[in-house]
Amino acid sequence: MSTKMVLATVVSQEQLLGDVYSMWLDVGDMAGDAKAGQFIALYSSDHSRLLPRPISICEVAPEKGSLRIVYRVVGKGTEEFSGYQAGDPVRITGPLGNGYPLLKAPAILVAGGIGIPPMLELARRLDCEKTIVLGYKDKLFLNKDFEPYGKVVISTEDGSCGVHGNALDAIREAKVTGQVIYSCGPTPMLRAVKAYAEAQGIEAYISLEEKMACGIGACLACVCNSTEVDDHSHVHNKRICKDGPVFNAREVIL
Amino acid sequence: MISTKVNLAGVELKNPVMVASGTFGSGAEFSEFFDLSGLGAVVTKGVANVPWPGNPAPRIAETPSGMLNAIGLQNPGIDVFVKRDLPFLADYDTKVIVNVCGHSTEEYLEVVERLADEPVVSMLEINISCPNVKEGGIAFGTSAKAVEDITKAVKARAKQPVIMKLSPNVTDITEMARAAEAGGADCLSMINTITGMKIDIERQTFAIANKTGGLSGPAIRPVAVRMVYQTAQAVRIPIIGMGGITCAEDAIEFLLAGATAVSVGTASFNDPFTAMNVVTGIEAYMTRHHVADINDLIGIVK
């Protein structure tokens, strides 16, 4: 592992819609080290906000030494980031976490809301037949970026585009099949994905989130319940930041 | 030539900078960022006689210039700790202080006895101040009689010098400090976190699952400095000061107030290099103020 803290520079910032922003960061070697499903931690320049914000890596461009994050403004920290412009510095650590395994089996990528961004780098790297199922509340973002990498199936909760319903409804309605699922999104969706994979008898790799403090596995804030005894504390708590964020769905209890 | 060496109950530290229990694990994660040998001491996450699962998530919430935590002392228990974490720490040229937690006197003593013959362990820090566990922890730290009793019980079995970690969640911390001293404590650590609460108004529930958590970070620093100062006037044993230290200047405040050593805690989450920056920053301060021996700074503000 080559986790580093660096002073990154904003390359570009774009508002994709309402509260969703896309930012490219010049990060040097970190771009080449990063795997799909890993994340970076961004520190606020306001020292009254102590904790780094964990944000998933959406895309990397190792040849340029840059990586992209697509994030939603949910509080003061992300609001600050959304105001950054090209040339602004931002302190980050990364790459953090484990990332998705890259299997050869026909894959279904299932993502919902702000869980969609990390699936883009995964879609780029997976060398297999794949269907990409993207669930939105109403307005779409990033969906066009996925089109070069596989068949894209859309669902919206308000029925304004694609299947009316959630990502699982879309899988059923579009009769999407595959031998492995990769997923990221809200916990109710991941719970449904886990149940669906178990019913189908296939593997599912899901990316979890939780409030984090250190981001490197030391503070034990961001734990999830695990089916097996964990290696760190020998209880049933895996660290999302270090042991995850990606878990085989069978490893965790949601 | 400046000297940053300090002496804590007979244990000599190369510098007064350590890390606060619970913010640094047993050092493995932070060792990817810097050489732990640069620290005066590593204070480990609390360790109990058996593995503890801790509290449900969410376990933390950010607050202005601080954070609340209710981890609940998740730890692998003394067996794994002795086999895995102590050999790891033995490879570094730093002192190892093990934080000990328990639900009962017997549980504390079991850990203290297991560590008695571990040469890697320089000191024990007894956690009688965790606000996030229902039994033990803070229950031992908020009555003078209980503080004195647990200190005596630990001292009777411990082979290493004993640090009692005090809670700020009391009316008069100097009373607890005197009780620890009367019980035979060799040193004091202060302060642990201050009990607080945050409510998530969108979800209309508590921000952390445990409802209450311990407040740490710069928000509590003035409280910590005040308590260290008052305690330094009240006892003769050395004090390890902590609470919101983010830089050398913050650490110097604690030294001037009467702390012999300091711990960096929450600030390591904001920057993993903070503790090392405090070490170098203290040296720069000493040079700037023409102080040759760091002991000449300790407790001089009265």
Can you describe this structure?
- The complex is a heterodimer of chains A (254) and B (302).
- By secondary structure, chain A is α/β, with parallel strands linked by helices.
- Chain A folds into 3 domains: 93 residues, Elongation Factor Tu (Ef-tu), domain 3; 108 residues, Rossmann fold, CATH 3.40.50.80; 47 residues, Dihydroorotate dehydrogenase, electron transfer subunit (Dihydroorotate dehydrogenase B (pyrk subunit), domain 3, Ribbon), CATH 2.10.240.10.
- Chain A contains 6 helices and 17 strands.
- Chain A has a 7-stranded antiparallel β-sheet. In chain A, strands 11-10-9-8-12-13-16 form a 7-stranded mixed β-sheet, sandwiched between helices. A 3-stranded antiparallel β-sheet of chain A has the order 15-14-17, with no helix packed on it.
- The longest helix of chain A is centred in the last third of the chain and has 14 residues.
- The model of chain A has no long low-confidence stretch (mean pLDDT 97).
- Chain B has 302 residues and is α/β, with parallel strands linked by helices.
- Chain B has a single domain, classed as TIM Barrel (Alpha-Beta Barrel).
- Helix content of chain B is 30%, strand content 21%.
- In chain B, the strands form 4 sheets. Chain B has an 8-stranded parallel barrel, surrounded by 7 helices.
- In chain B, strand 5 and strand 6 form a beta hairpin.
- In chain B, helix 3 packs parallel to helix 4, helix 5 packs parallel to helix 6 and helix 6 packs across helix 8.
- The mean pLDDT of chain B is 96.
- Classes of the chains: A alpha/beta (254), B alpha/beta (302).
- Chains A and B meet through loops of A and strand 5, strand 6 and helix 7 of B.
